[in-house]
Amino acid sequence: MVAQVEGETSGGRTHSGGSDAMNDRRHSVLVIGATGTQGSAAVRELLRRGHRVRALTRDPARARGLSRLGADLVRGDLADRHSIEAALRGATAVFAVPLRDPTDEKGELKNSILLAEAAKRAGVQHYIQTSVAGTGDLPHMPRWNSGYWNEDYWETKWRIEETIRHTGFPAHTILKPAFLMENFASPKVASMFPELPHGEIVTAIGAQTRVQLIAADDIAAFGAAALDQPGRFSERSIELAAEALTMREIAATLGVVTGRPVAAISLTSREALAAGRHPAVVRGEEWLNEVGYHAPIDALAAYGIPLTSFNAWTAAHRNLLAFV
Asked: What does pTM read for this prediction?
């Protein structure tokens, strides 16, 4: 499939080469996963800061909102080398969110390697990869190599990170977010917390377990800052979280902001499975109890990028909360 730019935006500028973007200190950024939570946030933030943005999508009709904001929509498929190479022509930066391929369990890694190698050949100057907090010391994770956790998930994220570190880009930054606040809003809430529309958060997360949270807009802010200040962010792997809350504290915040009571119900793993929760979701909640994210929240202040509290995020996204 050949990449096709669906529109010409950014004041009618085309993307024929990278030198113009570098001379005026703006980038031409190819965003992978642009219609998802992290990718769409990156598109908005990059455009706000004056960068040119290409949003890669298999279906441009799903991304018309991004086009209206000023992004160029590029039709392409991560598994298709030719479409990726076409999308990268003239790009000086990449913001990549790894995407699972439900038809190929090895597809996420293969596609990420293909993209990185094509970006290197295309002369990309700064590659920003998002991953997940907690990948840095996998062999010391409790129960590692027991088959209890989804080890393929963790190893894939780590191998993607290693690919970016060793491909040889002039600059690279790896952003490793903890639990997304957007998991409590549409559309993700339907699979993550299906009882929330009825005023309940039912999980196998312990009552005392603190879950580190981060907003997608904050991930995007770090990505945009990395492009603006490559000297501060290049060759950095940054774990991201704004605060750590119990599910009861999360429920209380949702209740206060929306004016509707929300109860946090903590089940045992066996009770959660018996109640019909998906086994993969329950296992992930067990992981939060036993391992959890450990991003250095206090240390992130040194970057000078304001982080969004869950209270502020809830107030800003009230219209996306399914039970309002």
From this structure: 0.91
